[in-house]
Amino acid sequence: MSVARVEAGRRVKWEPFAAMVVLLVLSGWLVVGGADAGITVREGAFTSPIRVANTRGVVDYVKEGGEESFVVRTRDGWSSASMSAGAFRAAFGPAVYEEVSASRTNWVFRLFNITSWAGVAWVGLGLLGQFAFTGRMLIQWFVSEQNRRSTVPAVFWWLSLVGAGALFAYFTWRQDVVGVLGQASGVVIYVRNLRLIGKERRRAERVAE
Hints:
The protein is α+β, with helices and mostly antiparallel strands and about 210 residues long. The protein has three domains: about 1-35; about 45-115, no CATH class; about 120-209, no CATH class. It is elongated, with a radius of gyration of 24 Å. The protein has seven helices and six strands. The strands form two sheets. The protein has a four-stranded antiparallel beta sheet, covered by helices on one side. The two termini are about 45 Å apart.
């Protein structure tokens, strides 16, 4: 990236790209490994996230010799007694039991914190929105490097609108009120900017005529 030429004799700065990579690695660690880093589970256990009121934790699931055992562990250090499959099903219901036991055999479910293949489609929609947001910033950066001044092309707003729409739907499915509020306000701004660009283009065409 540091040697990519955008114009003859000009190079894209490598420092912003390096900072972006560091931030992505850090955020990936926080999501995949850092969120429940303080919870100690049994060796060889599979975990599924759990939330009761404002308390978060994991279900520690082990299957050995055909016998299943479950332990609920919270971030504040509390752990339940080991429960058999029957006891866990009686306490949390058959749906939760199926979700926890299914996570053992599907790394995709564990990675994206979902419990069904329908969830994969929703995660895909969320990733599409995030890729659109990332793409708009890369394009804006590239165009600005070409012009040697901060420039916002029209495609920036189109990608913003696509990304916001996809993420709005994804956050709604996740029931994430912070994400929903953030994207809802952005959609209006992106549409307004596109309308202003359209009006300016039509005005310029009338003057040219």
